[in-house]
Design brief:
By secondary structure, this protein is mainly alpha-helical. The protein is 73% helix and 0% strand. The radius of gyration is 11 Å and the shape is globular.
Amino acid sequence: MDKKLVVKMIKNCFRQYYETDSLPVSEQDLTKLTNRILEWKKGEPTVDLYEVVNDVVYEFLTN
């Protein structure tokens, strides 16, 4: 799986919640989110990547 694609999807997902171009997340958190998504997808390959990204970003924002 391409990490660049996942990072781009994370950034797009954050734009749903924030109207500014700046991300409310540090590079370290972005890396953690990316790794979490890739691990989840590796463990459950049939799950839609879009759903995984949305779930992980939502969980990050609500915790």
